[in-house]
UniProtKB/TrEMBL annotation:
Class in the EC hierarchy, top level: transferase
Database matches in InterPro entries: Arg_Kinase, ATP-guanido_PTrfase, ATP-guanido_PTrfase_AS, ATP-guanido_PTrfase_cat, Gln_synth/guanido_kin_cat_dom
Keyword Glycosyltransferase: no
Family: Belongs to the ATP:guanido phosphotransferase family.
Motif RDXXRA motif of the pArg binding pocket involved in allosteric regulation positions after renumbering to this chain: 338-343
The name this protein goes by in its record: Protein-arginine kinase
Species the sequence originates in: Brevibacillus laterosporus LMG 15441
């Protein structure tokens, strides 16, 4: 494997599968934060100390127990160009923090990109698992097995009272963050979304945008995750998130049914108008593309655009991002050039499936 293997396509192999409730849940992600005992946390480590962590992690990756899990590649941030790192951010394989601030950072990627381990980001290790659809328990099981492999070969920073120790106090305890990416256009259209978001914060959960903390919720995509990691078991965290997400999924389905029964012409017009614009526009900005792709995705899920694939829409959410557009073009592009290329990419992909 090589870096190009992970940057040449906007999709990951795991994205090709259809998980449970995939009409509303785009993907499930699990992240486990861990640090190595007797090693300064990344924010305080010298370059040589950070390099020692990478060396220890490389030994785990090369071990027989890890090889039983499949092929993995360790890639250094120092060896990547800025545009290559940006593509990995847009694919959610690395965080913006690792791409921009880490001196001796690295990422470990599985062949199908369903597992991504960030090295020397905010913590020494951030084990990430990605699955299609609504698969919280499955993601936890897969992430836990990866965590066990590391824990058998390196000494984790752990306290009997506080649990796993992390750079940020909000991650102390279990160190896990589970999240589901939800597509909620009907709840937005029926103006129920604000009420739901306010209620979510009262049960220890948080909602973010497409790219996590600090990002905007564009294209009616909302990332729902746990906020509390201390004082709850892993099973309780997963169960709580699963319960709340299940209720939101049901509410979105009810809102979609309501729109079809009471505003059918309006919803059809919105869907086909966006589809028409995207398949004919010569220039389109990022936010407009995300919103209109959301309309098209809704049209596919409701059966109005039966010849279109939801996978193509998911792919376009990545391939129309600034970094990937420029990487695919092989050069830096101005905002106007990106808007033109974005429109061209969307026209080509949607018409291939219409």
């Amino acid at each position: 494997m090589s870096l190009q293997r992970f940057t040449q396509h906007p999709w990951s192999n795991w994205m090709k599968g259809e998980g449970p409730d995939s009409d509303i849940v785009i993907s499930t992600r699990l992240r486990i934060a861990r640090n190595l005992r007797q090693h300064p946390f990344p924010l305080l480590a010298t370059d040589s100390q950070a390099e020692e962590v990478v060396r220890k992690v490389k030994e785990v990756i090369d071990s027989s127990s890890m090889k039983k899990k499949g092929a993995f590649e360790l890639l250094s941030m120092e060896d990547m160009k800025p545009l290559e790192k940006r593509v990995l951010v847009e694919k959610h394989l690395i965080s913006p923090n690792l791409a921009e601030e880490s001196r001796k950072g690295a990422v470990i990627l599985s062949e199908d990109e369903s597992i991504s381990v960030l090295v020397n980001e905010e913590d020494h290790l951030r084990i990430q698992v990605f699955l299609p659809g609504f698969q919280l328990r499955e993601a936890w099981e897969k992430g836990s097995k990866m965590d066990d492999i590391f824990e058998k070969q390196v000494n984790y920073a752990f306290d009997e009272k506080r649990g796993y120790l992390t750079s940020c106090p909000t991650n102390v305890g279990t160190g896990i963050r589970a999240s589901v990416m939800l597509h909620l256009p009907a709840l937005v259209m029926t103006q129920q979304i604000n009420r739901i978001l306010q209620a979510i914060t009262q049960v220890g959960l948080v909602v973010r945008g497409l790219y996590g903390e600090g990002s905007e919720a564009v294209g009616n995509l909302f990332q729902l995750s746990n906020q509390v990691t201390l004082g709850m078991s892993e099973a309780d965290i997963i169960s709580n998130l699963y319960s709340v997400a299940s209720q939101i999924i049901e509410q979105e389905r009810e809102a979609r049914q309501y729109l079809q029964e009471h505003s059918r012409i309006s919803i059809e017009d919105k869907i086909f108008r966006s589809y028409g614009i995207l398949t004919h526009a010569r220039t389109v900005e990022s936010k407009e593309a995300a919103q209109r792709l959301s309309d098209v995705r809704l049209g596919i899920d409701l059966g109005y655009l039966q010849a279109c694939s939801p996978f193509v829409v998911n792919e376009l959410l990545v391939s129309t991002q600034p970094g990937f557009l420029q990487y695919d073009a092989g050069q830096k592009l101005t905002a106007e050039q990106r808007d033109e290329r974005r429109a061209s990419v969307i026209r080509e992909r949607l018409k291939c499936n219409s």
